[in-house]
Design goal:
Layout (H helix, E strand, L loop, with lengths): L6 H11 L4 E17 L2 E21 L2 E10 L6 H13 L35 H14 L3 E17 L4 E16 L6 E8 L7 H14 L3 E2 L4 E7 L1 H13 L3 H5 L24 E4 L33 E5 L2 E2 L6 H7 L10 E4 L6 H6 L4 E15 L4 E14 L2 E6 L1 E6 L1 H7 L2 E2 L3 E3 L11 E3 L2 E12 L3
Parallel strand pairs: 7-15, 8-13, 12-19
Antiparallel strand pairs: 1-2, 1-4, 2-3, 4-5, 5-6, 8-20, 9-10, 9-12, 10-11, 13-14, 14-15, 14-16, 16-20, 17-20, 18-19
């Protein structure tokens, strides 16, 4: 049995062992490399490897088709039959699956399906690590301390089905989070980046950005809660619109439970959400943000169905020129709502036609406004309006007549991303960004900065 150890062999053997009416097997081979640092010095680094196998069994019955899903890590050839039998037992013990559909059929085979999985290792930091060391030296001489981590993961997914699909996808995911603090810990700022290979990340650029923000924070200004013209940087826009995407299930909208529900019934598809020519889209082939070009569903839920595994994904505009175009659907929920099939895709891009950088938008600010660094602890208050609450973090700055004049206190905010789209008066240049709140779950995004004339800072929040 030891010869059955390669990922594609594990998938094939599991399919052979299945006695269910249908079977989907997903093997995820994951490797990761990381660096961590504190006080301008590396503290830890490491490399890991892992395997997770998911078996989805489907059983046809008089009342309909049931499904059973079992996932286990560190699976070897000897674990296969018990795992397959457990999935089959789960299916036979379950009632009919509401999202049941015929498994995706056809004979597409990825040409590299039988190749070894792609792997990452510490070499991914070969250029980045020395540059980070130079940033430590500059920070020490500038009287600031750098903290943070860099992580790179490479997941190769092998998907096989009893209907003949043999698909593979290699997904690199890199994240960098860098925090600069004053030695007395009274001033702090954050920057993050998303990357596929760490070749497009410049620690010197990030350190210079953070140094400037710490200088701004030397002058402290207390402001009350209220509505302020606010510049949301790309990372904050990403956090808000990712939550909007996660809340855009067509079935929930059609059943009257979300911000995308139309009063009196139906959905708001076709409505104008913004006066700006904003387009919110996902594309598995978006340059620098490439993601799986087919559905990979380890479990069924509001926005995914295990029966859709292997379904091809195509570019989708969720909002086009400010108009709501699509809500997320599986094949099942598309049938329920009468809307096109539009599964979620693992990236998100907002484009508004603007060309200004965030710095240029600051310089163009007349009167008084706020510049945010990032948001965190975002939670939903009201699904009917998608009202979110959260906190600003690591620097809120006061802008007067095009110049930053100091740092102000943090705030709690209450805002709906859908409402913000309707009130935005300017969108800047779209650029790759890393969401601060959702960076552990959703890393592939490109957003512009947005100017909001009346962002609701509902209360003052203590702390850095």
């Amino acid at each position: 049995m030891s010869r059955v150890s390669k990922p594609h062999e594990i998938v094939e053997r599991a399919l052979e062992l299945s006695t269910a009416d249908g079977c989907v097997v997903i093997a995820d081979e994951q490797s990761s490399a990381n660096l961590r640092w504190a006080g301008n010095a590396l503290t830890t680094n490491g490399v890991t490897r892992g395997r997770t196998l998911t078996v989805i069994a489907t059983v046809d019955g008089a009342q309909g088709t049931a499904s059973g899903v079992v996932s286990r890590s560190a699976v070897t050839a000897d674990d296969l039959e018990p795992l397959v039998r457990a999935a089959e037992a789960a299916a036979r013990g379950a009632g009919p699956a509401e999202d049941a559909q015929p498994l995706v059929a056809g004979v597409p085979v990825s040409p590299d399906f039988t190749d070894a999985p792609a792997e990452t290792d510490s070499d991914v930091f070969a250029e980045f690590a020395p540059a980070l060391g130079d940033a430590f030296a500059r920070a020490r001489s500038g009287g600031r301390e750098l903290y943070g981590f860099a992580n790179h993961e490479l997941t190769t997914t092998y998907l096989g089905t009893s209907t003949g699909l043999r698909l593979r996808h290699d997904q690199p995911t890199g994240t960098l989070e860098l925090n600069a603090k004053s030695p007395d810990r009274t001033r702090s700022s954050w920057a993050g980046r998303s990357t596929r290979d760490f070749k497009d990340v410049d620690p010197a650029e990030l350190d210079a950005e953070l140094a400037q923000r710490l200088r701004w924070a030397e002058h402290r200004i207390e402001l009350p809660a209220g509505r302020y013209e606010t510049l949301l940087p790309p990372t904050a826009v990403a956090d808000l619109l990712i939550y909007q995407l996660w809340s855009s299930a067509a079935r929930d909208a059609a059943e009257g439970r979300t911000v995308f529900s139309k009063p009196g019934g139906g959905t708001r598809i076709g409505e104008q959400l913004s006066g700006l020519p904003l387009t919110l889209r996902s594309d598995p082939n978006a340059p620098g943000l490439e993601s799986a070009p087919f559905v990979i569903a380890h479990a069924s839920g509001d926005g995914a169905s295990v029966f859709d595994n292997g379904l091809p994904l195509t570019p989708t505009d969720w909002v086009r020129d400010g108009r709501l175009e699509h809500l997320t659907t599986t094949r099942h929920t598309a049938g329920l709502t009468g809307l096109p099939v539009a599964p979620a895709i693992d990236n998100l891009v907002l484009e508004g036609g603007g060309e200004r950088s965030l710095e240029e938008m600051v310089a163009a600010t007349t009167g008084r406004g706020l510049l945010l660094t990032c948001m965190w602890y975002i939670r939903e208050v009201d699904p009917a309006t998608l009202l979110l609450t959260g906190l600003t973090r690591d620097g809120v700055y006061l802008v007067e007549d095009g110049e930053v004049v100091g740092e102000v206190n943090n705030f709690r905010f209450n805002e709906s991303p859908v409402d913000l789209l309707s009130r935005a008066t300017e969108a800047g240049r779209t650029e790759k960004t890393l969401p601060r709140e959702w960076g552990d779950w959703f890393t592939r995004s490109a957003m512009p900065a947005l100017r909001i004339p009346d962002f609701n800072m509902s209360s003052v929040s203590p702390g850095v």
